[in-house]
């Protein structure tokens, strides 16, 4: 019978690797604790309309990358491709805005996008994300960017820069959109098919295209920075002042727009020295109203955890793999001992010790070999005679020294 393998674009995280992931997640959680950000968990799938309205029907995510299906009731559902829309839906549905604003929420969750798999880019990938909801303050933008940079700092990563821009608001962006369209009018035919299509829906996204023909056509394009209204100029200026006050490295890129329709004002990416993006985000003041809720201003970011691990690898930083070590390897000898040893096993574990037991029944020699293989500190040998006498043979695997101890003596010796 043919073997079944995992789907393309997914990965198995094996026991020796999951310790690295746990460390990564723990660092994210600890940074969030320092910034007083609380965790939120949303479903793996949502109604498709949520992402069409939230992300935008002209985005690559909606047009090309979503895993969408009909359930048995004929409802269109989509595996979560990004976290912001799902969090916004949860905030509105559960009326979290009734709590003291702003809300500061984080998630550690899998996301699903159908795209060509590559290094650090999987169809099921994992994101660490932050959503700060309920304030228009530029200081909130700075807070989110500072948290993103602190995350990488705590991981040990270096040489990272914030690249940022303002994409304006509903007041000033239409003017820039018109200026950009006029500039592109004689150049659009030389651009890629995607950009020709984008021109009718969201021409600003052409600025984000990496195709050489499109980059060439944009060399003299007008800058959105020149079209910002007074409010957006003031907001962006305060963001820059905040980053400078914190000493965070940054540069302004007038062509940075990001690929999601809900962004307003600040957008940013965290980039490596080679120009690779490791996380990104921005402000999205209109999303909550677009989803049928209150007008709640918000800002956030998402960081791919697979990409974070690759960054650490590229910079020669190692998170420890699972050493698969245990405190005690318990070896029952004889059929009676198989049952009689269970209270001993339970007592050791309740004392806070990591304990594995031998299941093989192949004898002492084979059991000791496995104890060595899994890096146990001591082997506890429970023969029938020793158990009757209330004793256990304790063998130090590093030195080979052994002695008979009671369970209480063993717990005292091991610090339980």
UniProtKB/TrEMBL annotation:
Its EC number is 6.1.1.21. Transmembrane segments: none annotated. It is found in: Cytoplasm. L-histidine binds at residues 82-84, 113, 127, 131, 258, 262-263. Keywords: Aminoacyl-tRNA synthetase, ATP-binding, Cytoplasm, Ligase, Nucleotide-binding, Protein biosynthesis. GO terms for molecular function: ATP binding; catalytic activity, acting on a protein; histidine-tRNA ligase activity; transferase activity. Residues 1-332 form the Aminoacyl-transfer RNA synthetases class-II family profile domain. One of its GO terms (cellular component) is cytoplasm. Pfam families: HGTP_anticodon, tRNA-synt_His. One of its GO terms (biological process) is histidyl-tRNA aminoacylation. The keyword Nucleotide-binding applies. CDD domains: HisRS-like_core (cd00773), HisRS_anticodon (cd00859). The keyword Ligase applies. Belongs to the class-II aminoacyl-tRNA synthetase family. Homodimer. NCBIfam families: hisS. This is Histidine--tRNA ligase. It comes from Tumebacillus algifaecis. The gene is hisS.
């Amino acid at each position: 019978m043919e073997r079944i393998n995992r789907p393309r674009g997914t990965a198995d995280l094996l026991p020796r690797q999951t310790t690295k992931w746990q460390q990564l997640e723990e660092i994210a959680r600890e940074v969030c604790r320092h910034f007083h950000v609380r965790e939120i968990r949303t479903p793996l799938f949502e109604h498709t309309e949520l992402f069409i309205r939230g992300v935008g029907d002209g985005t690559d995510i909606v047009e090309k990358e979503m895993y969408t299906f009909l359930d048995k009731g004929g409802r269109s559902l989509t595996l979560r491709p990004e976290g912001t829309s799902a969090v916004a839906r949860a905030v509105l549905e559960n009326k979290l805005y009734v709590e003291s604003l702003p809300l500061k929420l984080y998630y550690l969750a899998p996301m699903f996008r159908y795209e060509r798999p590559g290094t650090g880019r999987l169809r099921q990938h994992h994101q660490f994300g932050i959503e700060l909801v309920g304030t228009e303050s530029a200081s909130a933008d700075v807070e989110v960017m500072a948290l993103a940079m602190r995350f990488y700092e705590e991981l040990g990563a270096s040489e990272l820069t914030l690249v940022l821009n303002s994409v304006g608001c509903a007041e000033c962006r239409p003017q820039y959109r018109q200026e950009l369209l006029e500039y592109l009018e004689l150049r659009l035919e030389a651009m890629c098919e995607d950009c020709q299509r984008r021109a009718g829906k969201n021409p600003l996204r052409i600025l984000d295209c990496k195709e050489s023909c499109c980059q060439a056509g944009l060399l003299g394009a007008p800058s959105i920075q020149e079209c910002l209204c007074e409010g957006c100029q003031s907001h962006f200026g305060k963001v820059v002042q905040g980053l400078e006050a914190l000493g965070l490295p940054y540069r302004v890129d007038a062509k940075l727009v990001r690929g999601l329709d809900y962004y307003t004002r600040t957008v940013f990416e965290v980039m490596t020295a080679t120009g690779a993006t490791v996380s990104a985000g921005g402000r999205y003041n209109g999303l909550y109203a677009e989803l049928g809720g209150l007008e709640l201003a918000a800002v956030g970011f998402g960081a791919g955890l697979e990409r974070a691990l690759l960054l650490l690898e590229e910079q020669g930083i190692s998170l420890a793999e699972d050493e698969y070590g245990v405190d005690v390897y318990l070896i029952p000898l004889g059929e009676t001992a198989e049952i009689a040893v269970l209270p001993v096993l339970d007592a050791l574990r309740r004392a806070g010790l990591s304990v594995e037991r031998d299941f093989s029944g192949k004898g002492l020699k084979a059991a000791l070999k496995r104890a060595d293989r899994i890096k146990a500190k001591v082997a506890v040998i429970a023969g029938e005679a020793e158990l009757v006498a209330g004793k256990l043979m304790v063998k130090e695997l590093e030195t080979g020294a052994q002695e008979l101890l009671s369970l209480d003596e063993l717990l005292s010796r091991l610090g339980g």
